[in-house]
Design a protein that fits this description.
With 503 residues, the chain is of the alpha/beta class. Helix content is 24%, strand content 25%. The protein is globular, with a radius of gyration of 24 Å.
Length: 503
């Protein structure tokens, strides 16, 4: 069993010094291909700078589409409108015989691949950089149809479903939504031989028998309830084998398969049954990458590599049996895992593990979190992005700062951290400007305006997560602030980026 968590700067069972540098010797399939050094360079060059966080809006995508419309590289078409009247675009590239469809963000809060597609658009428009051979190969062999944002109304709210509260990925059979009908109509018109269904999955999946989060999950969806493998599905499996070979050079032991139970309402399953070798890509979690910018890079690379292999037919050299070697997702990950903490009452002692997760609430283009106790008990199979072995330590209730502060501006990060280290988990501000009510902030302390904030009085399933962990003498070692684990012995500069809100 492997016990390590992948992070942005951690060497993890690979020959490269950084998971996002890669090994310059590529091990992908036969045919012309790009090595990891070239792929790294390409993404650095063509990454779309206008998209740098997950909560971009339809107007951001619309503006970028209009830029690409001006080039002679893409055919850009408004193929329809959403329920609320937002334009849905398709960008077409290439005049080859092999037809490919890629659609992203049919769930409005799953934007990682959308960013990667615009990086890819920039690459396809490039020239004179030594990679024109790749562009020519793709253009002459493929006819690619990109739908970068199928659910713009959901994206506007950063919600999964469309404006009618329907899951578009469960509308392939009934066709009740305008967006679902649109995707089906484009599939009928294009008749693609290959399909890419681009999604995000939650960050709490792990690779079985490891303590690694699943960073990328892949699937060749079933086309029937028996999950049989025909030539079409086998092609998708072979493409995935190639993707996995490349991914293992960046994120070893951080790739898994999504559940392959047949879903008659799902678009991926139906595309597979319609004759398109369809690959599901799910962007998961990676420590230190909350906005999924590194996972975006992985999407860019595996999609580009797959398109090159489809153009050359080289994916056919892979043994589809390699697909079965990729494990299925497990779901044992949490944001914080505290092991062996004493937190019982005065009358009944208790020493157990505590799992914590943070839920996000969207505010415009930003968000704040609320930490909650996800599980309590014997959790050796569970793991966290941050963990603490708390044997010999105990739960300590936090305090509220005895002196309110006059205004928000008087709380610097240094003052907040000093209060936190002294056992004060919250501080009241007596005079807030109107625009500061419910304001988002990154201070390492709870800031509240009215005297109704309370620290966590005891550990309770589903309860709040604002308390301390201390040794048997009561010396504070860690603060658990809104679901974030903060080591009080580390400097302020090493505190994680916090997403809090004035209460």
């Amino acid at each position: 069993m492997k016990f390590f968590i992948l992070s942005l700067g951690l060497l993890a069972a690979t020959t490269c010094s950084n998971p996002f540098t890669g090994n310059s010797s590529s091990t992908v399939g036969s045919g012309y291909h790009l090595d990891t050094a070239q792929l790294n360079s390409l993404h650095a060059t063509f990454k779309e700078p206008a998209l740098y966080h997950r909560r971009f809006k339809h107007k951001d995508i619309d503006s970028l589409v209009q830029v690409h419309r001006k080039s002679d590289i893409f055919g850009v078409t408004e193929i329809g409108k959403s329920v609320e009247g937002r334009s849905i675009y398709e960008l077409e590239y290439g005049e080859g015989d092999k037809k490919v469809m890629l659609w992203s963000q049919m769930h409005g809060d799953e934007p990682t691949a959308t960013m990667a597609l615009f990086d890819l658009f920039n690459f396809l428009e490039g020239k004179g950089d030594g990679f024109d051979t790749v562009r020519t190969m793709l253009r002459e062999n493929l006819n690619i149809h990109f739908i970068p944002m199928l659910n713009p109304d959901g994206a506007e709210r950063f919600l999964r479903r469309n404006a009618q509260s329907i899951d578009l990925n469960r509308d392939a059979r009934a066709g009740q939504t305008v967006e679902g009908k649109l995707l089906k109509a484009r599939a009928d018109a294009i008749k693609p031989r290959y399909g890419f269904n681009l999604h995000d999955q939650n960050i709490y999946y792990n690779v079985p028998d490891t303590k690694n989060p699943v960073t990328i999950s892949l699937l060749a969806p079933a086309y029937n309830p028996e999950r049989e493998v025909n030539e079409v599905r086998e092609g998708a499996m072979q493409i995935i084998v190639g993707m996995n070979k490349l991914l293992q050079q960046y994120i070893p032991d951080a790739v898994a398969k999504y559940d392959d139970t047949y879903t008659p309402r799902g678009f991926g399953d139906n595309f597979q049954s319609w004759g398109a070798s369809t690959v599901l890509i799910e962007s998961g979690g990676l420590k230190g990458d909350p906005e999924k910018q590194q996972i975006r890079k992985l999407n860019f690379m595996i999609i580009l590599n797959a398109l090159m292999e489809i153009a050359q037919g080289s994916y056919g050299s892979y043994d589809a049996k390699g697909y079965e070697d990729i494990p299925f997702n497990a779901s044992n990950f949490h944001d914080v895992l505290i092991r062996g903490l004493e937190f019982g009452s005065d009358s009944i002692s208790l020493k157990s593990d505590i799992a914590i997760r943070r839920g996000e609430t969207t505010v415009g283009r930003d968000y704040f979190v609320r930490g909650r106790v996800e599980d309590i008990g014997d959790l050796p199979e569970s793991m966290g992005y941050d963990e603490v072995q708390a044997d010999g330590m105990k739960f300590i209730i936090g305090k509220i700062a005895p002196q309110p502060l006059p205004n928000f501006e008087s709380i610097t990060p240094e003052i907040a951290f000093d209060l936190l280290k002294k056992g004060y988990i919250g501080v009241q501000v007596t005079q807030l400007k109107p625009e500061q009510a419910n304001m988002l902030h990154s201070l390492p302390i709870h800031v509240f305006a009215t005297p109704n904030f309370a620290a966590t009085p005891f550990i309770d399933l589903g309860g709040t997560t604002n308390f301390y962990i201390g040794d048997s003498n009561g010396t504070l070692k860690y603060a658990v602030l809104n679901g974030y684990l903060i080591d009080l012995n580390k400097p302020l500069s090493e505190i994680p980026a916090l997403k809090n809100r004035v209460q």
